[in-house]
Amino acid sequence: MSECVGIIGVGNMGEALLAALIKSGQPTSQICITDKREDHAAELSAKYGVSNRSISEIGTECKIILVVVKPQDLVSTLESLKPTLPNRSLIISFVAGKTIAGIESILGANHSVVRVMPNTPTLIGKGMAAVSRGTHSTDACLSFVNNFLGASGKVVEVEERLQDAVTATSGSGPAYFFAFVEAMVAGAEKLGLSHEIATELTVQTLIGAAGMLAESGKDAKTLRENVTSPNGTTYAALMSFEGSDLSSIVANAMAAAAKRSAELA
Predict the structure, then answer these.
(1) C-alpha to C-alpha distances, 255 to 157, 166, 168, 175, 226, nearest whole angstrom
(2) In angstroms, what is the C-alpha Rg of the chain?
(3) Domain of 79?
(4) pTM
(5) Is residue 96 part of a domain?
């Protein structure tokens, strides 16, 4: 697919996707952006050498459009876009909770829709995205999406009914990790370490642990068992987690995230 690509909404995630498009080989001369904050769009236009356009101009000029707006803004965005779209446009939605059927009901049957749940590590090229194809999406559509998202992380394809579970896992997942880091740093400070040392110890430990999980070929259970001596210090900490029913705490939190994602539809 060698077409002009438009991005509606270039906040943090939109800018990350813009960078991914360029990294994947999309010419900057064939990228148009727009944002509710006109000064921000103009700033990014100058930074990346892409065109700053209105929504209607993006609809007219771009056959592939990334929609990266807040859920409450999706309907008005699509209604503004619809009158200008040529037949067989590809609409790629990054809007949390909003279904393909809902988007297709507004745009009609003449367009392809792909739904994506990304996450914020896309900003540093280490994202995780899950894609779902719409009623009229072709293999070429999915190939384009997979190619440019692959430039900023990993991509999997799932049935759309699983997108709420994806949201609860990888979409919201970075926030769980950050919350755990905050808790570890606070715990280390209570044990007498300075905030700076506690932060450095915690962050590097978790980076190292994540690296082992990614590169060792061993699963999390095996790696956990390898560092847990019977009645040792790690064992004592893990028993405390177990006493607080950590698995249920995490599962309940993820269920709450998935439920909220479904409510946004």
Answers:
(1) 21, 11, 7, 15, 30
(2) 21
(3) 5-163
(4) 0.90
(5) yes
